[in-house]
Amino acid sequence: MNASTQKLDRPALDAMLAGLRPRLHRYCARMSGSVIDGEDIVQETFVKALNALDGNITVEQPERWLFRIAHNATQDHLRRRSRERSRMSEADMTTIEDPSGRADARHIAQTSLRTFMQLPVAHRSAVILVDVLGLSLHETCDVTGATLAATKAALHRGRAQLRSLAAEPEEIARPALDADDEKRLRRYVDLFNARDFDAVRALVAEDVQLEVVNRTRMRGKAEVSNYFGNYDRAVDWVLSLGFVDGNPAILVHDPAGSDLKPRGFMLLQWLEDEVVSIRDFRYAPYCLDGADIRGLDE
Fold first, then answer.
1. In the chain, which residues fall in CATH 3.10.450.50?
2. How many CB atoms within 10 Å of residue 239?
3. HEC states along 154-203?
4. Which has more confidence, 218 or 14?
5. Is residue 65 helix, strand or coil?
6. How far is Cα 71 from Cα 286, in angstroms, rounded to an integer?
7. Torsion angle, CA of 32/102/296/98, rounded to 10 degrees?
8. Helix extents (H) in 10-58
9. Inter-axis angle of helices 137-144 and 148-166, to 10 degrees?
10. What percent of the chain has pLDDT over 90?
11. What global pTM score does this model have?
């Protein structure tokens, strides 16, 4: 962590955010249990950091300051999700719970997001900050606001819980896709792969919203047409259907790659048979770190 005191203005903050984004996402994704939610929290962190700027401000430990904002944004996200789930029936809750995959206590940094979600929030935060991101105990205290004794206890208990989880068998519910959703997504993917972008454009709503994560945002069919044109000019992609953290997704592969591992993914939202929202993670490779990615036919 940067131990200096730095004067921050908008350009300096933008530069720092760009450099820290993968590490911030690694923390937020593991705390929330989803690379998609993790990106939402990172974006919320950026907004809160920008709102905190009042002209030029002097910040002690600027990187730690950003991690504190991310930590607090994550706590807000978890509380909102807890309130939402508390309104659901017990039967609904059983569809959300996702048993852990295997955890290797000797390689905590590789522990699955599902496994981290089985730890209490304080234990989860301590383990991720110390064992995944490499913060010291004192830096972790500064980020979370916990005492040194509480941080040591949370870290010890979190590590012990991960060792216990490592001995449990892997039992992961297979995600499923509604038949109508699959039909719509397959048509989109098939037209995309055929480079029939006029037909793809016909599927999107006039007021469609697009986010190319870590790059740009566009709104309206006219602007988004440029996005499809960029794909039409590129040759380093092919699409398939799958799931990312249990969410229906379009996986982006490199056709010249030696393996089948995706290089990115897209999320679509539909209103009846029109695409109203596109989130393209192709230029956010850090979002693949720790994600549970599966092809539809696996």
1. 179-295
2. 20
3. HHHHHHHHHHHHHCCCCCCCCCCCCHHHHHHHHHHHHHHHCCCHHHHHHH
4. 218
5. helix
6. 18
7. -50
8. 10-32, 35-52
9. 100
10. 56
11. 0.78
Q: Tell me if 61 sits within 8 A of 1, measured CB to CB.
A: yes
Written as six digits, the tokens of 249 are 């997704």
CATH T-level assignment (fold) for domain 5-166? Butyryl-CoA Dehydrogenase, subunit A; domain 3 (1.20.140)
Whether pLDDT at 134 is above 70: yes
| CATH entry, 179-295, from 3.40.50.1970, 1.10.443.10, 3.10.450.50, 3.40.50.1390 | 3.10.450.50
Contact predicate 209/278, CB 8 Å: yes
CATH 1.20.140.160 positions along the chain are 5-166
Q: Note the pLDDT tens digit of each residue in 195-236.
A: 999 999 999 999 999 999 999 999 999 999 999 999 999 999
Which residues make Cβ contacts (< 8 Å) with residue 37, sequence separation at least 6? 28, 29, 77
Pairwise CA distance, residues 236 & 34, whole Å: 27
In b/e form, how buried is each residue of 179-196, taking b as 16+ CB within 10 angstroms? eeeeebbeebbebbeeee
Neighbours of 163 (CB within 10 A): 14
